[in-house]
Amino acid sequence: MDTTNEDKGVTILIAEDEESNFLLLKTILKKYCNILQARNGIELLHIYAEKGADLILLDIKMPEMNGIEALKELRKKDKKIPVIMQSAYAFESDMEAAQEAGSNGFITKPINIAEFKQAISKFLPQIKW
Question: Which run of H or of E encompasses 59?
Fold first, then answer.
């Protein structure tokens, strides 16, 4: 049975400008949910406004509009959507800025798959790994 076009009921929007990082996240998640990709904060806001999502994975360091700025804009319109920030540069200041902007969680790269799945499950318990 071909399930490539099957709606999995849950959609995760991944804002990530590095293709290799996006592909890793997509590989982990694609069996469990629908995936949308944004390459910067501006794209993220457009895609979310147009298609919505159940959870957003948001990279902090991106071109045009970084993750913190995108999150601040997103929170003006939607305070409920779970947003997990991700960064290879886990500076305390980044984590604080992400929290102040309204992030629901923070994961560091390289991704620890067990921690990553745990962070997702906290907001999307319907995903069965």
Answer: strand 55-59
